Amino acid sequence: MEKTLQGKVLDEERTIRDRIRKNVSDFFELKRRDSKFTPIKDRIRYSGPVYDEKEVTQMMERILDGWFGVSSYSDEFEKNFSKIFGVSSSVLTNSGSSANLLAVSALCSNQVPNRLKPGDEVITPACTFSTTFNPIVQNSLTPVLLDVQPGTYNINPEQLREAFSRKTRAIMLPHTLGNPNDMDAVMDFVKEHDLFLVEDVADALGSSFGGKKLGSFGNFGTFSFYASHQITLGEGGAVAVRDKRFEPIIRSLRNWGRGEGPFDDDWTKGTIIEGYDNRYLYVTIGYNLKPLEFQAAMGLEQLKRIDGFIKIRKKNFNALLEFFSSYEDQFILPESLPKADPCWFGFPLTLKKEAKFKRKDFLDWLEKHNIETRLLFAGNIIRHPAYREVVYRKVGNLENSDYNLKNSFFIGVYPGIDSERLNFMVDTLKKFLDKFN
Ligand SMILES: Cc1ncc(COP(=O)(O)O)c(C=O)c1O
User: Fold this and answer.
1) Global pTM?
2) Which residues cross the membrane (predicted)?
3) Residue 162: which CATH number?
C-alpha cells in the first residue's frame, strides 16, 4: 500500500536520526582511539565529566523531539534517583546551589506550620562552599558557625551543644569533599532538640555512614550534578526529600511558586481565588530553578554508571593515600570515621606547620606539570568580602578553618584519572617531595 506523505516524512526522520546516532558514535570511537595520555601536554584535571555516545545520543534525541521543559525523562530520573538513595522522592533542579536554596526556603515556607522565621539560627561549618552558606543569609536566618576538624574537614559534633541556643532551629551540614559526618551524633542532637537537618551531599554522592546513604538522614539531601561531581547532567542538582509532605513545597518553590500536587485547600476556600487555574495559582513565594529535559536524559545514562564511577574514585583515593602515607611529616592526611564509607570528591591535603615548603610552591609545581588542583572551597567563609556585614554567631575562634584557608587544597580522584595518569601524578609528586626528605 502507498504510504501517506506523513508516513514518508516519519520514515525520513527515522533515517536521519539513525545517521545522527551513527555520527555521534563514530565521533566517540575516534576520541577513544586518540585518547593516549601524553604527560605535561595533556592536562590532568581535578575532576570532569565522564560520558560518551550513550549520553550524547540521549540528549540529541530529546533536543530533536523539540520538548525542552521537565517531562517524562525528568520524572524517570527522579524516580530512579529516589530508589537508589532510599528517599521517598526527589526533585530535579538546575544546580546544587538551587537545591540548597530550595531546601532552606522550604523550611521557611508558609506551607510549613513550624516554619523557620527571620532571626532563627542555623548551625553550619565555617569551612564551606558559598551556596551551602548563602541560603541561610538569603532567608534572613542567622548562621552559627562551627569550626571543622583537621583531616576530616567536618564539624566536631560535640560543639553542637556549645552552638545551641533557644533560637536554634536547623543544621545545614555539608559532608566535606564526600567525607561523611558523624551521623550518629548529629542525628541524636537533631532528635533531642527537634531540629530540621539539611545534608549538603553535593560532593558526597555514593558515600554512606553505617551502611545508610548520605542524603537520606536529613529532612533534605541536596545534590549537585555539575560537571565535576560524581555524576553529571552538565549542570544540575536534586533535592532528595525524606518526608513526602515536603515534596509539593519544594516543587512549588522550584516552579515559580505555583500549586503543585496536594496543598491545603483552606488557603483558597471562600476567597476570590477558589477554583483558579493551578498553573497560575501561587501557594509559595517561588523561583524558577528547573533543569531541562535533555539534562535528565543525560542523567538517566549517568545513573547507570554510578557504581563504576564510585569504584574508581575509591581506588584512586586509596592509591594516593598509600603514596602520601610516606609524607606524613609534611601533610595532614584525610581521615574518615570507622562507620563511614566515603566516595571522595577529591584528595584533600593540608600542610603541617612544620612542612618544609609553602602551599604555593607545591601547587605551582603541579601546575607546571599540568596537574590541576583546587583550594578547599572558602577556607573560612566569613573571611570573604561578601560577608562583611552578615550577622552571625560562632563557636570558638574558627582557627582550623582559617588554617585551611591558608594551607589546604585537593587533587583529583575522578574516573578520568586512569592508571597512566595516576602514575604520572605520583611520579611528579614524588619528585617534588623527595627534595625535602
Ligand atoms: C558542598 C557544595 N555545595 C553546593 C555546591 C553547588 O553546586 P552547583 O555548582 O551545582 O551549584 C557545591 C559545588 O561544587 C559544593 O561543593
Assistant:
1) 0.97
2) none
3) 3.40.640.10
